[in-house]
Amino acid sequence: MGKSSGRSVDLSSRISSHKQGFLVSARILVGLSIALVMISSATAIAKLVNVFDAKSVNTLLYASATILGVVAPAGLVAIYAFWLGRKAPPKDLPDPRRAQVVLGYAEQLRLATSKLATEDELSRIGAVYALGALARGSQQSERATVDALARFIRTRARPATPRLTRENISLDSDVQLALRILGSRDIAQIISTGVNIDLSGLDLRGADLSDLDFRGVSFRNSLLDQADLTRAQFDASDLSFCSMRASIAIDASFTNAILDHVDLSDSTLGGATLQSVWLNGSRLTRLLAPEIDLTAAIMPAVDLSYANLTDASLRSAFVSEAVLDYSNLEGVDFTGAILDGARINNAKLYNAKFAMVSIDSIVAQRNEGTPTEAPKALLSSVGKERTRK
């Protein structure tokens, strides 16, 4: 504390001395210029009225011109050099204005977070909006604001309890708003600074998370039934044991996410990206997901019965012991996939690609269509009377 005070006093005294020196120099230069102008004017008048002889007048005029042409510019240069050469204040010294801003932000954050705990919903909504405005400040303020929003969501959202009915699916307005503001930030960058965003074990059924960024966020054991996840980003997120029944995740991204034992039955994931995702033991029955990208996905024992995967990519996917009964696999690319022990019965295989697949112990019967580059076990499973002409 003493060192900071000493530095502040020293800085103030140096700035004050520089200002005084500049003002004194400027006054001297102005006075000198005025004096020289007056001498030149008087000399010119004296010449007109013949007070001095011509030689004396010429000498005075030459001296005045020399002073005005040489001394004055030299004085200006000296003052300019003096001004530029002054020592800048050390960067590590405290800036009173910056301290004021930080103090102001801290006070605003305190007021906003205190209102989050009120029983009045409108007051909570106003506080959430205030936090959203504060998040647009510095990186430090953004981290603190995001942490406050995450804590508010964990506090206000209902806990995810088992066997919840599908009736009365709704989300409180203040929680929904907090999710929208939280997901509008660059979450992955904030998490990389050490901020932990944990939204696990919450009842978020019916939430609108469309076009939001939740990369790296944990939703483990949360309920996201009937949620709108359209174009949302969940890369590297943990959604293990989540219930996401009847959710909409068109064009959403789950690359490298963990979705072990997730229930995505009756959901829509058309065009979604699930590259290198973990789907161990997950339920995807009646999934509507044309053109979904499951390249290199790890999905053993997954249930895809009655799913529509038209033109999907399962290249190099690990689909051992998966169930694909009654699924629509038209145009699906299984190139390099591992289907050991999988069940593919009564499925549509028109133009499906099975190049270089592993199908040890596969169970395949009564399928439709003619897959390309398929092993004999799959080709023999296609009934002639069920093949499209």
Describe it.
- There is one protein chain.
- The protein is 39% helix and 2% strand.
- It is built from eight helices and two strands.
- The chain has helices at residues 2-48, 54-84, 96-115, 121-134, 139-156, 173-183, 187-192, 376-379; strands at residues 343-345, 363-365.
- The radius of gyration is 38 Å and the shape is elongated.
Radius of gyration: 38 Å
Shape: elongated
User: Treating each run of at least 4 consecutive H or I residues as one helix, how many helices?
Assistant: 8
Main sheet characteristics = 2 strands, parallel
Q: Roughly what is the average pLDDT, rounded to an integer? A: 80
- Specify the structural class: mainly alpha
- Topology order in helix (H) and strand (E) letters: HHHHHHHEEH
Amount of beta strand: under 5%
What's the topology here?
Blueprint: H1 2-48, H2 54-84, H3 96-115, H4 121-134, H5 139-156, H6 173-183, H7 187-192, E1 343-345, E2 363-365, H8 376-379
Parallel strand pairs: 1-2
Helix pairs in contact: 1-2, 3-4, 4-5, 4-6, 5-6
Describe the structure using short key phrases.
disordered C terminus, mainly alpha, 8 helices, 2% strand, 389 residues, single chain, 39% helix
